Every structure is written in C-alpha cells, then in structure tokens.
C-alpha cells in the first residue's frame, strides 16, 4: 500500500512540475513576443518622428540606435508620436556617433517638424490685417503660426534635411555628390568657427515649414512669439524702414503670422 501511494504521489508531482514548466515557457514566449513587438513598433515610430536621422544612417545602424534607446528609455506616453523627446541627447551619449556630431541637431529639427506637422491648423485671417491701417500699432498683436519657434543650430541641418529628403538628391548622383561636398565644408567651417545659425520652424496652415533666419529677424520673431505689441516688435528694426517692410511682407506671405488682433 505504501508503495502504491508513493508511486501515485510521484506521478502527480511529475505531472505538476511538467505543467508548471510548460506554463513558464508559454509565459516567456508571450513576453518575448510582446518585447519584440514593442521594439519593432518603437523603431517604426522613431523612423517616422526622426525621418532625417533614419535617412542619413544605414538601416541597421538606425535600428541599433533605436533598440538601445527603447531599452534605456521605455515608453511611458500613450501616443508613440510623443515618444523620443530626448532622442538627440541619447545620440550625443553614444561614442560611435562622435564622427557625426551633426546628428543630434538633425534629430532636434526632426522633432520640431514632426510636432508642427501634428499641430492643429489655424485659419489665415487676411481681413484682420486691415487693423494695421485703423489702429495704433501699440494696441495690436500678431497671432503667430502654430508651433512657431526659433532654434539655434551649429551644423547645416537645412542642407542635411535636403540630403535626406530631396527626391533629386536621391536619384541624381552628381547632385548628391555636390550636396555632400557642400555639407562637409559647412560642417568643417562650423566646427572651426563655433558660430550658430538660427532656423525658424512653423506650420503654414497645412504643413510644417522651416528656413534660416537673418540676424535682424531673430529678435523680432522671438518678440512675436512672446505676444509683444506690433509696435515693440517693429522697433527692433529701428530706422531701417526698408528691412521692416520687407520682413512684414515676408511673414505675412509665408504665413508665419496668421492674423492680427486688437488688445
């Protein structure tokens, strides 16, 4: 009787252990599938948010970069589009990218352009600009375009963005070679001089735009973004009426401002 009892206990204990091992294996497989999906979804999302960085790097290098970032900075936001705010800082921390010092700045440009693309449209109110003829400038303020921001960059990110996205530069080898040569010269000059250039990013009704900004325009755009009066903004140009008129015409035509309101 003792022998039978021992045999039954042994059989059931073996089955229980085997069943538990099976459950553990299934759980691990599920975790592996979830992890792999998380990594792949994350890489796809980062390739969209940082399209220029993805285009400049070899695919495998970009995937390795994203994989490391996803592990070090797990996603905590709901929307993948909100993930990657410190991607530029992570790139800067990777020694292997020291030979591409422009890459973190390119990631910054990508980030702002992506968020400008996702911003809500504001309609352009052409009629509101007649207020310039009827009200004192100290009682008026501009309504800036969505996501308008001025950013300083050391490296030629505009030219790098063109290299990544311009269709002609993807198919015309001669043009691409000239662009790369130009970029290399600009990068060397930037490293030697340490002088930054400013870029304005904004959403012109339906798409994100960006361009280099002249020095005399930087303060005016920053004042505009701070909701200062039109009189205060235009005082930046002093007695230079020609520059002031040209700037006003430009920001209206390019829709960096979308309306004027009376205070």
Write up this protein.
Keywords: DNA-binding. GO terms for molecular function: DNA binding. This is DNA-binding domain-containing protein. The protein is of the alpha+beta class and 263 residues long. The chain folds into two domains: 2-116, no CATH class; 121-154 and 196-262, no CATH class. It is built from twelve helices and five strands. The protein has helices at 2-49, 51-56, 59-72, 87-93, 103-118, 131-134, 157-165, 167-171, 173-193, 215-225, 230-234, 241-253, and strands at residues 140-144, 146-153, 197-204, 207-213, 257-262. Helix 1 crosses helix 3 and helix 4 (87-93) runs antiparallel to helix 5. The radius of gyration is 28 Å and the shape is globular.
Which runs of at least 5 residues are low in confidence (pLDDT < 50)?
Answer: none
Number of strands: 5
Q: Supply the number of helical segments.
A: 12
Average pLDDT: 88
Rg, nearest Å: 28 Å
What fraction strand? 5-15%
Strand order of the largest sheet: 2-3-4
Overall 3D form: globular
Count of all domains: 2
Helix and strand element order? HHHHHHEEHHHEEHHHE
Percent of residues in helices comes to 55-70%
C-alpha end-to-end distance = 98 Å
- How would a crystallographer describe the biggest sheet? 3 strands, antiparallel
